[in-house]
């Protein structure tokens, strides 16, 4: 059984639709753990009333993404979970999502496997894994390189986000949980997958397991829509800032090969500062 950990804070309409999409799936062999970090919009009541099968853990509003996920993971591991999936609430899964997830577990039982993301509104593929080049500070987006007839099955990548991320128990036993001390909200998923890769675990994106996401609803996208000095500061320094310089620095020092760190940092700082203004 896959234990699915979903961190939430308000936005109960997204949580409802996410859980309904799982309920409609062709594979029912899963257990959902929702970590509600202090929601004030009635999320807890909705979960109790509409999804009694879901186990709910509670935070006080100070956990953010990483500590919330870790709370759910610890609980799942204590329950004996062999496979855990992290899933955000602002997405929906295709009916055969879990069926196609289970299909590849016997093929790569120790691998960390992500999912193909499609835009929920257009149903067009939006994200299919990344391959990072630290030396040149560039990221290759695999989806842009693969012809249509090759966009299926497993494809090797070098980093993955936490949306629909399947993680075997043995990975946690080897590398530990997500690094909530250094990366309380963003970047923890990329850091975790790099750490797993360094310890010999393969990373794949499963193009048969499809998620439907709402990219324009992310906090960072909303921040960019209304540009101001205040939002620029939040972009660079807020715990939920997509260009957070502290998180980027810590990620670089921890994961970038030492010879490339100076250039990677300088280039990355420029991208985050200028990118907010120009995009």
From TrEMBL:
InterPro entries, sorted: Glyco_trans_2-like, Nucleotide-diphossugar_trans
Superkingdom per UniProt: Bacteria
Keyword NAD attributed: no
Domain Glycosyltransferase 2-like: 4-115
A GO molecular-function annotation: transferase activity
SUPFAM superfamilies in alphabetical order: Nucleotide-diphospho-sugar transferases
Name of this chain's protein: Glycosyltransferase, GT2 family
């Amino acid at each position: 059984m896959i234990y699915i950990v979903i961190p939430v804070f308000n936005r109960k309409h997204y949580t409802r639709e996410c859980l309904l999409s799982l309920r409609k799936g062709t594979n029912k062999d899963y257990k959902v753990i929702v970590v509600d970090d202090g929601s004030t919009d009635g999320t807890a009541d909705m979960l109790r009333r509409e999804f009694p099968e879901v186990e709910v853990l509670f935070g006080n509003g100070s956990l953010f993404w990483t500590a919330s996920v870790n709370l759910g993971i610890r609980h799942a591991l204590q329950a004996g979970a062999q496979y855990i999936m992290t899933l955000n609430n602002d997405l929906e899964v295709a009916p055969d999502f879990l069926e196609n997830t289970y299909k590849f577990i016997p093929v790569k039982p120790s691998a960390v496997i992500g999912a193909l993301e499609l835009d929920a509104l257009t149903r067009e593929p939006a994200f299919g894994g990344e391959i990072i080049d630290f030396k040149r500070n560039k990221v290759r987006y695999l989806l842009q390189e693969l012809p249509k007839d090759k966009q299926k099955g497993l494809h090797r990548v070098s980093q993955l986000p936490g949306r629909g991320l399947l993680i075997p128990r043995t990975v946690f036993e080897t590398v530990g949980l997500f690094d909530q001390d250094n990366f309380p909200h963003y970047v923890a998923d990329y850091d975790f997958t790099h750490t797993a890769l360094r310890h010999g675990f393969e990373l794949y994106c499963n193009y048969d397991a499809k998620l439907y996401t709402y990219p324009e609803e992310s906090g960072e996208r909303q921040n960019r829509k209304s540009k101001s000095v205040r939002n620029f500061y939040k972009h660079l320094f807020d715990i939920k800032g997509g260009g957070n310089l502290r998180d980027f620095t810590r990620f670089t020092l921890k994961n970038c090969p030492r010879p490339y760190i100076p250039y990677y940092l300088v280039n990355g700082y420029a991208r985050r500062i200028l990118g907010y203004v120009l995009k």
